[in-house]
Amino acid sequence: MRIMQLHDVRTRRSAEDFPRSEHLAWKIAQVAADPVPVEADTAEMVVNRIIDNAAVSAASVLRRPVTVARVQAQAHPTRNGATVFGIDGKYSPEWAAWANGVAVRELDYHDTFLAADYSHPGDNIPPLVAVAQQLGVRGSDLIRGLATAYEIQINLVRGICLHEHKIDHVAHLGPSVAAGIGTMLRLDPETIYSAIGQALHLTTATRQSRKGLISSWKAYAPAHAGKVAIEAVDRAMRGEGAPAPIWEGEDGVIAWLLSGPEHTYRVPLPGPGEPKRAILDSYTKEHSAEYQSQALIDLARRLRDRIGDLEQIATVVLHTSHHTHVVIGTGSNDPQKFDPDASRETLDHSVMYIFAVALQDGAWHHEHSYAPERSHRPDTIDLWRKISTVEDPEWTRRYHSNDPAEKAFGARAVITLESGEVITDEIAVADAHPLGVRPFAREQYRNKFTTLADGVVEPAEQQRFLTAVEDVASLKPGGLAALNVRIDSTVLDKAPTIPSGIFR
Question: What residues does the MmgE/PrpD C-terminal domain cover (predicted)?
């Protein structure tokens, strides 16, 4: 078992003696600069997540937000740059990361880690791959960088809650990308420290992107954080500093954006020489929906046969954690979560809608389940409005448990029929979770890619990509362009037409 060090992080007065060696950003920089080897199971999971990102990018490539981001990136070509998913050419790395980050995030369909806060640590992959392609990094160093990026974001999520102060979770992503790039490029702690400070300073934003009428910015937000982090590392490499101490300063993040000067956070980080293994604590999605609804989709599929005639349902109450209740449940007090005309992004964050459709269909599809004709079905609307959530303290406790065997993201469903009969069932984790009934391994990641790429990516190109990514650790400098998936122009021609903007 590796040794994790807990670091107390609190606001410090400007006049207080607070050496840089005690700054959280410096401690993260030291972790990033530690040349500890990547263990085999960690490296294997990094490959799995690169495959996972490619899968969801293939599924989203024709969607409007992804098309907009791709067109913006195409306005920034360069001779020795990075690749953009689906197309040929080389582009400025921060713009390639932007386009690829949006493609990964658009369908809310890749990996997740939940603790004190939320995260989708797969968002680290596009910016690190883009920088690696730009600078001709070898595949083994990309894996090292991604192990660091996952480690830092996941441990920030364990130690610092952003959402209770309505700060978006991408504020943990900027520092993790900066740290991961630092590891990948073998930068010194001083440079990484400055990049982390800049990245955090510039990626704090409110959670309104995930509240009310949720727009396409939900997909853009993490891509923007990755883009900003790349630019921060570039400036730091040129000798530029950052606001410091960024978390602990008198006018810093904790004092004014989080719990204030009286609060102490405890952030775990691996000690010197300890391997970076946090990626193994994260989990991907079998269904294209917000993670806390994954288990509930599986539960709904399981309950269909027990219920029989769904029109006999009088009420459905989902007893669940605080997070699920207030973010995607009725505790959010968002009327949009019951609106058939709501955006896909909003429906994705309505567990009432998701549970209703999963009960009726016994399945979930990244497009069909959100289609306007699906959300407007009268029987769906009727069932949807019978569903509510309540917080159960036990589910909240399990959500925050540090024991992997006890940690849960599920709920207990109490279904009352018109006859008065009550049907109950519960589920702790999704079927695809590492502790679920069908945990994802390499075979499932490959199947997810080939399924979502069907009709989008030619079979020969699918196989070429899978062969390349499974050998990523052996790719020599200049070889990481092989991680791009090319899509036939006849497929891309189906993408929406985008009006001109500032970038041409």
Answer: 287-471
